Amino acid sequence: MKTGELLDCPFCAFTDHDHYFLLQHVETIHPEGGRPSPFAVREQPTHQVEPPIDEMEGATRTSSDYIECQCGEFCLLTELESHLDMHNAEDMGFDEVSRAAAGVAAPESTFHPGEASSPRMEYPVPTPPHIVTSDPSRPIPIKSVVERSHRSTSRKSGNSVRDFIGVLRHSTSPPSRKSSQAARNRVPRRLGRAELGPHAHEERMPDWLRKELEIGAKIKVTNQITPDGRLLRIESIANEVRGVIPVIAQLCEQDVAVSRAYLCHSDVTHVVKLAKEGGFCGYRNIQMMISYIRDARSAGHQHFQGRLPSIIQIQDMIEIAWDRGFNSLGRIETGGIRGTRKYIGTPEAQALLQNFGIGCSADAFSEGKELPTHERLLEAVEQYFLASCPASDSSHKVFRTSLPPIYFQHPGHSMTIVGFERRNNGSCELLVLDPMFKPSPGVSRFIGLQFRTAAPEKLLKAYRRGSSYLRKYSTFEILKLASGAPERAGWRGL
């Protein structure tokens, strides 16, 4: 669509040059069924300072509109549907998926010193979110690409409003942070909301949130009797769940639609956000990478003894890495992150690891003339796992390797890749740990057990990111730890 083209509302005579303003008009003036739109602007987030006009040069309205779910996370407007879908998956109860289970066996192993038990976490049920914009006096902008196709639709039809809004919401994705290599080849500029999130220009996070992050998640200490009669002290942290990867491996084995699956090292803790903490997913993924380094005793593990570093500590680590010249353009691009809620990405994760002498390499995938971007990403991840497994071995369906996990970034969000699967129909999916969502009660119930379930695909839904999800984005970044860690080339079939 041409910039500046006058756009018409398909339901009345309203017009506007900004295609994003059009959708808010539709949702506010023409709500489906006459009900107020749940996406209308209600309030402006606190502790946020908007940038001067000159700082917004190069940024677009397209990429600066976020929705705050009741879970406390700000997500891009285009991700609302999948975000709520994942909330449904994380609430998948054990009874829902196990009613017809063939049986559950005894735990597959005894307790190990220092191993946290699986916590049962309570989070609020998500309610209709609200949109955050930079100017509460103006309607929220949403991209329109279909004004002609909907012009002849009845103005009284609730379905027409819903369909029109639905198409607009899924029509765009914002640009991602540039890779560190690309950053070295360009003049650095101060990034905005598109890259750093809704709090891109705040000077400090709210005091209550900083205090919450400093205290950290609730810690529970219990005593367990081991099979040999010893008393074992078990410390569990409410937002850290160990033992998820072996459960995923068994679910892949039991899903008849899966032809081959690969999992990384099982010593990766699923770290999830605290309720109401907001967009610290990048930090949570760094914590997951560190959990592997620490527990698998990979290169650099001596720097991460004891509990995982907090978000506040990770901010200090990144700032120190910048001081020492590692991806130091990040300070210019972000304006500094210490004590703020600004989003971080691959360059910051890379800087932190390199400052500790931990080898890692970043790869960026963007639009080109070859395969679609998401297909090249899937191909690269598959090759990563295939390199440690014998391609000729057809006796196993699921391969549990000793490979480290992969830091994975797409516009607006990051996750940790812990596996890859190829289905019988030829399609492929990433297997991820998403810090935005806790393990479902069904998955938590299976941790530490050998089990069988009649509905493995339902429990796997929260961990799968396939083409239908990935094709919404035109850029991706991944960060892989360098080879050479203990047992890195090993693998075993399930």
UniProtKB/TrEMBL annotation:
<feature type="region of interest" description="Disordered">
    <location>
        <begin position="168"/>
        <end position="199"/>
    </location>
</feature>
<keyword id="KW-0378">Hydrolase</keyword>
<feature type="domain" description="UFSP1/2/DUB catalytic">
    <location>
        <begin position="259"/>
        <end position="479"/>
    </location>
</feature>
<dbReference type="Pfam" id="PF07910">
    <property type="entry name" value="Peptidase_C78"/>
</dbReference>
<dbReference type="GO" id="GO:0019783">
    <property type="term" value="F:ubiquitin-like protein peptidase activity"/>
</dbReference>
<dbReference type="InterPro" id="IPR012462">
    <property type="entry name" value="UFSP1/2_DUB_cat"/>
</dbReference>
<protein>
    <recommendedName>
        <fullName>UFSP1/2/DUB catalytic domain-containing protein</fullName>
    </recommendedName>
</protein>
<feature type="compositionally biased region" description="Polar residues">
    <location>
        <begin position="170"/>
        <end position="183"/>
    </location>
</feature>
